[in-house]
Amino acid sequence: MIKRIFSAILLLGFVFVFFIIVNNIEEATALKGVGKEYAERSGNQELGAQNIVTAIIVTYRGLDTLGEVAVLFIAATGIAVLLRRKKKKIDPGKKKRESSEILLTGSTLLAPMIIIFGIYIFLNGHLTPGGGFQGGAVIASAIMLLFLADTSYKINHNVFGWLESLSGFAYVLIGILGLVMIGADNFLDNRILSLGTFGSILSAGAIPVIYTLIGLKVGTELASILDNMKGDLE
């Protein structure tokens, strides 16, 4: 009985606090503080990116983005270590589960288109909503589709490993070039390349290159995570 009374009081308290918060919400009609400064400095005037969110994430918050990529790398490494499997002896008398011909044909046709769509997302991240993380996740979904359709499908770990390492190295290298070419506080500054024509695919300086590297790194890392988690399905 006491627990029910305490739960009811606690619930009423939450309702009261929620009511106060909702009742005092004021619609923001203009940007203030840091948000206002970011909006005024980014875009066509300073960074040449049509997508202001992209300009903020890739340049002004470049160190945060680097940290997010590092966290994903640590997660992929941790999963690889925890789920590392010993090779099992294959029983010659054991029959393997056959994959559906419809699934194999469908995945073969769809996977390349999904990968191209993922590439499109991170190549146009400076123009429209999207970017490296989103595009990389879409690319990894194509690999997952192949895993689901064909239990014997395997990724080339050497190619994926080199691609992941080179994209990460190039990402950090671009950040260092910003420090050297622009200034001591300009890590990942996109102005190391020409800003180009505002609104075109070749614009916003190094942002498309940065997002391409992020997309490749995220895609390969997520694909490696899926490969470690799929288990021995043969």
| Portion in helices | 55-70%
Proportion in β-strands: under 5%
Q: Give the oligomeric state of the chains in this entry, treating copies of one chain as homo and distinct chains as hetero.
A: single chain
**CA radius of gyration:** 24 Å
Low-confidence stretches are none
Task: Average the pLDDT over all residues and give the rounded result.
Answer: 83
SSE arrangement, N to C: HHHHHHHH
- The N- and C-terminal alpha carbons lie at a distance of 55 Å
Shape: globular
* Number of helical regions: 8
Structural class from helices and strands? mainly alpha
Largest sheet geometry = none
Count of β-strands: 0
Summarize the helices and strands and which ones pair or pack.
Layout: H1 2-23, H2 33-41, H3 52-60, H4 62-82, H5 101-123, H6 132-149, H7 157-181, H8 207-229
Helix pairs in contact: 3-4, 4-8, 5-6, 5-8, 6-8, 7-8
